[in-house]
Amino acid sequence: VQDNVTSGLILPSVGCSAVSALKEQKVDSGEESLEALEEVLEKIQTVMGDDNLDLLVNRFIQAEDRNFALFNFVNDQNNEAETLRKQISQIQKQMEQLQLESLQREEQHRSLLRGIDEQRKECESQAENLENQASAVSRILDEIKEGVNSLLSKMECDRSVIEDKLGSSAGITENNVMFYLGLVEQKTNELLTIHTFLKSKDQEQDQSPADLAKFLLGQTPELLQQNLTIQPNLKSHPDKFSLTDEEERPFSQEELRRTIMKGVLGTGSYRKLKAQSAAL
Questions:
Q1: What is the three-class DSSP state of 52?
Q2: How many CB atoms lie within 10 A of CB 179?
Q3: Is residue 40 helix, strand or coil?
Q4: Burial of 149: CB neighbours in 10 Å, binned 0-12, 13-18, 19+
Q5: CA 6, CA 10: separation in Å to the nearest integer?
Q6: What stretches of 155-238 show up as alpha helix (H) in DSSP?
Q7: Integer distance in angstroms from the first to the last C-alpha of the chain?
Q8: How far apart, in Å, are the Cα atoms of 261 and each of 42, 109, 180, 272?
Q9: Cβ distance 148 to 181 under 8 Å?
Q10: Handedness of CA 128, 133, 137, 139 (dihedral sign)
Q11: Measuring CA to CA, how many Å separate 117 from each of 2, 21, 83, 147?
Q12: 147-156, 188-197, 235-244, 260-269 — which is least confidently predicted?
């Protein structure tokens, strides 16, 4: 095998040298050309150590075939290497693109987290403000309940009416405070009516019935200017007086007094207020 490889590598070089020598020589006739070829063959035989011309030619052809196969193999390898280099370059570009996209996604993620964190802080701030407002409202409600309870005690209001209606004696809460305020309003109206009736006794006897009726109903100029609005009473007595349009004629002063006294005496507040006035 080593001899074949050596002969395959030397034979082409010897042949090329001989051909180059033949080109340099100036051949004038066919005999000179034949002599030159014979000289070249002798040199090849001397180098190769073989006198068989056919064997030398076969070796030369085989060497050329091997060289051509090697040349094609090298070209294929070069082409494949070039293809691999292109693939590597494309993969590197894709990796760079993926890294850039990854960085962009990370930045978007961080930006989203910052936005969520800001929203969380804002929600916490709003929740804290609402809790403070709720605490303030709760304190105000507690003060209102204490004030309403104090008013009910000072005005000696009958709480059983509200307790029976609510079905509970738990006291004043956020849910029933309006009922107790209605009771306070009702009691206030009764006391104002009694106060107005007592004050009417000091008025002149020759006062007109219409003016006296307005005074007894609390429709004085000073009160009208205040433009007060009072909610309807939570509980009204069935025996309280009511002015209707059925009577065409105006009430007399005595009739107005009897009508008001009828509504006031039913509550018992008049007797308490009269007793207090007598004590003074």
A1: coil
A2: 17
A3: helix
A4: middle
A5: 6
A6: 160-166, 177-200, 209-216, 221-226
A7: 150
A8: 166, 81, 26, 14
A9: yes
A10: positive
A11: 80, 90, 50, 44
A12: 235-244
Give the chain's radius of gyration (CA, Å).
64
CA dist., res. 170 & res. 219, Å (int): 39
> Which range (1-15, 18-32, 239-253) has the least confidence?
1-15
pTM above 0.70, yes or no: no
The tokens of 254 are what? Answer: 């005595």
Q: Which residue bears the tokens 């340099």?
A: 24
> What would the mean pLDDT of 21-36 be, rounded to a whole number?
56
**Which positions ≥6 away from 199 have C-beta within 8 Å?**
none
| Two tokens, residue 116 | 């969520």
Q: Which tokens hold the place of 26?
A: 């100036």
22 touches 36 (CB < 8 A): yes
Specify the residue for token string 């990370």.
Answer: 106
SS3 assignment for the chain? CHHHHHHHHHHHHHHHHHHHHHHHCCCCCHHHHHHHHHHHHHHHHHHHCCCCHHHHHHHHHHHHHHHHHHHHHHHHHHHHHHHHHHHHHHHHHHHHHHHHHHHHHHHHHHHHHHHHHHHHHHHHHHHHHHHHHHHHHHHHHHHHHHHHHHHHHHCCCCCHHHHHHHCCCCCCCCCCHHHHHHHHHHHHHHHHHHHHHHHHCCCCCCCCHHHHHHHHCCCCHHHHHHCCCCCCCCCCCCCCCCCCCCCCCCCCHHHHHHHHHHHHHCCCHHHHHHHHHHHC
pLDDT at 149: 87
CB 60 within 8 A of CB 45: no
Burial zone of 105 (CB within 10 Å; 0-12 exposed, 13-18 middle, 19+ buried): exposed
